[in-house]
Amino acid sequence: MLPKTNEIIYIESGLVDNKILKTVVSEVTSDAILVMLPVEEGTGRIRTFFIDDVLIISYPSNGCQYRFKTKVIDKTNDVIPLLCLQKPEEKNIKRIQRRMSFRVPLSSKIVANIEKTRGERIENEELEINLLDISEGGIRISCDKSYDIEIGDKITGNLEITDEEIIPFEANIVRRAEEGRLLDYKQFGIQFHNMNTIVRQKIIRFCIMRQIELRKKLMM
User: Fold this and answer.
1) What is the pLDDT of residues 181-217, one digit of tens each?
2) What are the Type III secretion system flagellar brake protein YcgR PilZN domain coordinates in residue numbering (predicted)?
3) So what's the pLDDT on residue 219?
4) At 172, which helix (H) or strand (E)?
5) Predicted confidence band at 41 (pLDDT cuts at 50, 70, 90)?
6) Taking 80 as the threshold, does the pLDDT of residue 120 lie above it?
7) Which of 50, 87, 114, 191 can pair with 138 through a Cys bridge, CB separation 3.0 to 4.6 Å?
8) For 218, which DSSP code?
9) Which residues in 189-209 are b (16+ Cβ under 10 Å) and which e?
């Protein structure tokens, strides 16, 4: 369950204006986890901590997400400076998600191309749809009830997950949600396909960061 060498982990701390930081595990010893100096997600600004500073670590592993509390127990001044974090006991590592493809809210509008197969005909139409949430595996959308969208249709478009990050996607509509059936809109579950590993990792990273942000808001 512990993070492994060369894996990315995320740091929460009230000592840096509630910023979310990320770093890379350099080494795991019998009593410590050595990590590179963390950087702010988005700005790339390097941050450091003092001995005895308390940190919350989050990281994905084996299809789940884990979290534990630790503190800085030492610092090295080698060519590459490192922070030495106290290694937690396994009983103190909490699994906070059972699967990697957990969903987080993502409220925005996109214009997507819908490819519909109707008998022997293939039709294409651009429609404005509402994003509701996102996971590694897909998105959930809502749209006007008048839209001719069905399970099996293909959908392509671009997801703006941050101000700097726009991700192209291809997907299939795989299910219709019960929510909205009696209202003026439809909701659908969309499953990504043909997505490369780099893009998938960006979505996972966004989901983790978004979940940390939401948890912090609940604790305020």
Assistant:
1) 556 788 999 999 988 888 888 888 888 878 777 776 6
2) 9-88
3) 55
4) strand 166-176
5) confident
6) no
7) 191
8) H
9) bbebeebeeebbebbbbbbbb
Percent of the chain whose pLDDT exceeds 70: 87
- Cα–Cα nearest to 156, from 198, 196, 111: 111
Answer whether 25's CB lies under 8 Å from 3's CB: yes
Q: 99 with 63: CB under 8 angstroms?
A: yes
The confidence score (pLDDT) of residue 57 equals 93
**Under CATH, what is the fold of the domain 104-209?**
Thrombin, subunit H (2.40.10)
Ranges of each domain in the chain: 8-97, 104-209
Please state, in angstroms and rounded to a whole number, the distance separating the CA atoms of residues 202 and 171: 17
The CA distance from 140 to 191, in Å, is 9
Give percent helix, percent strand, percent coil of the chain, each to the nearest 5: 15, 50, 35
C-alpha dihedral (64, 69, 75, 80), degrees to nearest 10: 20
Inter-residue contact 34 to 57 (CB < 8 Å):
no
110's enclosing H/E stretch is strand 104-118
Cβ contact 93:67 at 8 Å? yes
Rounded Cα–Cα distance for residues 181 and 176 (Å): 9
Model confidence pLDDT, tens digit, residues 54-99 = 999 988 877 678 899 999 999 998 888 999 999 999 899 998 765 5
Nearest to 112 by CA among 138, 133, 137, 131: 131
> Could you check whether 8-97 and 104-209 share the same CATH topology?
no
């906070």: which residue's tokens?
A: 96
